[in-house]
């Protein structure tokens, strides 16, 4: 099938824009989103709050107890820092709730890159554009998909996790051991809390201490909520304390964080809608003008000056979208 030259140029321009945006997303998203700095700040605040909360309830020798708690928190923080650096691919796939293997992931990425590059070359007849599209589909799209599924699974975990903490609190108040309370959550809770608590019970059954099993939960589910839970259980296992009261306070904190997140999302919806409209306007105007006056708009991709202007506009528009995304996304 022979495509019209003008239509082929339009498709090539659109594929080039998509490829450039995807490549920029893969290369610069981690720096612009502020996730790394936010994660470090959350870990520091969690350590400070955990230290203050335990110190306020400390009994016996305050100096010795405070030093013991500080050592426990320091060990936990160092262990989390080591586990958070250079996360292996199989851990990322597990965090996303996928049963893929590393080999299957790489094979799928290679197939996606090859198919997209061949399709782009057939349409655009340009090997450079085809190579760029294949690069984006081979590296950017699979990575984006894994991160998307991971964030969606973590969001479900955050919604269900306070309910599991409440079950543990009621069980501890009724006189059940902490392990039995966690086992009840592993049987009755909703996914993905159910599967994560089951892994924690299986790890503890093999002879690993409960504190380390809970730290494994924080490593598999890297969110502040599991970090708080790990700190509470670790400090209680090593230093003692009223576990039901501490977990009750933790449940209240988790629900307050959930309410705050919902409030932030509600307040930022207007800004997100405005950003989406502003980002889509240039493409809508391009399509409408092309349908009404194609000779007028095709100068953008038939002349060197037009191509330069369109390339600069795409880069400028991409920078504006990233800035708006940075301003809209709130972390706490």
Number of helices: 14
CA-atom Rg in angstroms: 26 Å
- The residue-averaged pLDDT reads 76
Distance between the termini: 54 Å
Keywords: Cell membrane, Membrane, Transmembrane, Transmembrane helix
Subcellular location: Cell membrane
Pfam family, one: T2SSF
Organism: Candidatus Raskinella chloraquaticus
Please describe what this structure looks like:
The protein has helices at residues 5-33, 35-56, 62-84, 89-95, 102-124, 127-173, 178-188, 193-205, 210-220, 224-239, 243-292, 294-297, 299-302, 304-328. The protein is an all-alpha fold. The N and C termini lie far apart (54 Å).
What's the helix and strand layout?
Layout: H1 5-33, H2 35-56, H3 62-84, H4 89-95, H5 102-124, H6 127-173, H7 178-188, H8 193-205, H9 210-220, H10 224-239, H11 243-292, H12 294-297, H13 299-302, H14 304-328
């Amino acid at each position: 099938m022979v495509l019209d030259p003008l239509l082929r140029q339009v498709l090539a321009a659109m594929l080039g824009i998509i490829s450039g945006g995807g490549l920029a997303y893969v290369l610069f998203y981690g720096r612009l989103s502020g996730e790394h700095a936010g994660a470090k700040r959350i870990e520091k605040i969690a350590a400070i709050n955990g230290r203050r909360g335990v110190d306020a309830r400390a009994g016996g020798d305050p100096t010795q107890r405070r030093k013991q708690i500080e050592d426990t928190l320091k060990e936990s923080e160092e262990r989390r820092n080591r586990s958070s650096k250079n996360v292996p691919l199989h851990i990322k796939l597990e965090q996303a709730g996928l049963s893929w293997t590393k080999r299957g992931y790489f094979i799928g990425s290679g197939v996606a890159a090859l198919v997209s590059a061949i399709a782009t070359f057939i349409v655009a007849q340009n090997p450079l554009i085809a190579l760029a599209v294949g690069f984006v589909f081979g590296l950017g799209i699979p990575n984006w998909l894994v991160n998307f599924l991971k964030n969606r699974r973590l969001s479900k975990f955050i919604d269900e996790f306070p309910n599991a903490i409440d079950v543990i609190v009621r069980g501890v108040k009724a006189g059940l051991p902490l392990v039995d309370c966690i086992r009840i959550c592993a049987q009755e809770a909703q996914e993905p809390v159910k599967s994560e608590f089951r892994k924690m019970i299986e790890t503890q059954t093999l002879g690993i201490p409960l504190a380390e099993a809970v730290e494994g939960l924080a490593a598999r589910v890297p969110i502040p909520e599991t970090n708080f839970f790990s700190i509470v259980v670790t400090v209680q296992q090593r230093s003692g304390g009223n576990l039901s009261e501490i977990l009750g306070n933790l449940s209240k904190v988790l629900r307050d964080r959930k309410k705050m997140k919902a409030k932030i999302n509600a307040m930022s919806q207007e800004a997100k809608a405005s950003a989406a409209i502003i980002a889509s306007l240039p493409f809508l105007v391009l399509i409408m003008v092309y349908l009404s006056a194609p000779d007028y708009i095709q100068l953008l991709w038939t002349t060197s000056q037009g191509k330069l202007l369109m390339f600069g506009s795409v880069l400028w528009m991409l920078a504006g979208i990233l800035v708006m995304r940075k301003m809209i996304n709130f972390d706490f």
